[in-house]
Specification:
40% helix, NAD(P)-bd_dom, nine-stranded mixed beta sheet, Rossmann fold, alpha/beta, NAD(P)-bd_dom_sf, binds NADP nicotinamide-adenine-dinucleotide phosphate
Length: 216
């Protein structure tokens, strides 16, 4: 399978790329600096250079020809509003359009649990981030593509445990980025899971079993 990861230089993007390559998949992706491209090439990843804030859907589409699935795991992680709007908002809209232009069917978005901030006092920029993420989930779910939205709970850098809780609704807790990446890889290898929003947190079900449980 040929997978294009938007955000391949990021934590989840890099872990997902490694997981897919280990399975024998071909991974390419988008980075915004030349030096990232060289680093990734050394790991067998064919990266293209462009900034999501400037790229057009047409030029992104030209990078997606022949790809089987697009994964969007780029994000501002709640920075300034204009960056959030550009990367968590408009960037996803451009990627959806590019996916359609390139006639790629599958599009997977790494989103966030909408209630992740409940009970906490966030500044307005973080509130804005959650609002943008939710509205983009709407856009992805109405895209007509074979979309999948994965909403992990709070990301931590602990080693993965290979066991998760995955389903239409999960409580907000924590999950290791390694387990998120392993779950994404498993989901990409299960095309019967499509047009679903799945929430993900740490749990006790082996990843492959948890994924199979969500086939409808
Ligand atoms: N933090 C949490 O607890 C949490 C919880 C649930 C979901 N999430 C979501 O999970 C996703 C991935 O998390 P992560 O830990 O992997 O994040 P990360 O390590 O910060 O990776 C973000 C990626 O986005 C890329 N990016 C940002 N701006 C860009 C631009 N203008 N053009 C091109 N690429 C750009 C980054 O590129 P560079 O390497 O160049 O910076 C990087 O590859 C995010 O969307 C986040 O919203 C986070």
């Amino acid at each position: 399978m040929k997978v294009f990861i938007i955000g391949v230089s990021g934590s989840i993007g890099g872990l997902l790329a490694r997981n897919l390559i280990d399975r024998g998949d071909e991974v390419s992706g988008l980075v915004r600096r030349d030096e990232q491209r060289a680093d990734l090439a050394a790991r067998g990843i064919d990266a293209r250079v462009a900034d999501l804030a400037d790229i057009t859907p047409g030029s992104l589409a030209s990078m997606l020809r022949g790809i089987d699935a697009v994964v969007y795991t780029a994000g501002s992680n709640g920075g300034a509003r204009e960056v959030t709007a550009a990367i968590d908002g408009d960037g996803v809209v451009k990627a959806l359009e590019a996916t359609r232009i390139a006639r790629v069917k599958r599009f997977t978005l790494v989103s966030v649990l909408p209630e992740a901030g409940r009970g906490q006092e966030f500044d307005e920029d973080v509130e804005f981030y959650f609002a943008v993420k939710k509205l983009i989930d709407v856009a992805v779910s109405e895209s007509g593509l074979d979309w999948l939205i994965l909403r992990p709970s709070a990301l931590v850098d602990n080693a993965g445990i290979g066991a998760i809780a995955l389903g239409p609704a999960q409580p907000h807790d924590e999950i290791s980025r390694e387990d998120v990446a392993a779950t994404l890889a498993e989901l990409l290898h299960e095309p019967r899971i499509r047009r679903q929003i799945l929430e993900l947190t740490q749990g006790s079900t082996p990843i492959a079993t948890a994924v199979q449980t969500n086939i409808r």
